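Sample entry (270 residues):
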Amino acid sequence: MGQTIGIIAIKGGVGKTTTTLNLGAVLANEFDKKVLLVDANFSAPNLGLHLGLVEPESTLHDVLLKRADFKDVIYEYDKNLHIVPGSLISRKVNPHLLKEKLAGIKDRYDIVLIDSSPALNEEILSTMIAADQLLVVTSPDYPTLSTTLRAVKLAKQKNTPITGLILNKVRNKKFELTLEDIEEASDTPILAILPDDIKMLEALSQTKHIAEHAPKRNIVYEYRNLAACLIGKKDHKDNRFKRRLKRFFKKNIPKEEVNRLQVMYENSKK
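Predicted structure, serialized as tokens:
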């Protein structure tokens, strides 16, 4: 049975949905994992739109309303990357049925990624309950950090393990919070630092994932590193010249890489 990973954030605009999509695409296309993306943002779903799925005939809402079987709302983007969209015209559902409905389908996939609601409500709780582990998407500013701390606290209350944070939209400016600031405040390791890249918006405009649109961008390498960490692929190497140079001299190894190695080691034993 595949592992289910919830992607959460209690703030809109931090890149939770794009992270879900692009992480899933890298796992599917570059690590040959069978991946299912599930849009569990029941009130405002838009994961399908990122892949050009505008008016799906059936959605996750239909499953939760017991109008459709789960297998009938799965759409194939490519061989390994499948998606379960939500209904753009929102209908009231029981979000706590998500775990039950996923149980009948998750054994067909290596990894299920759940894109949660960005609000502190029963919708995000459904993701926490359905997931085996969580990744929290945040950005390097105080307002987002405050909501990240709430997300971490809530997840711990629900006893769903938090594997780590994904620090998104980083511009490497002095006014941004540092990795150390965020880790100390949240008591949670950062596993990936994703640069703010205009190519992400270009990819979105073409309904493509970033590895498909601009495979040599630094952000794609970061998604690859994160994916390898999550599946315990110890032989994965970051082939960027600067990273190889740092490893050669064995200094200035980024803290997020150390964090990934720890998670990778733990996942390789599973």
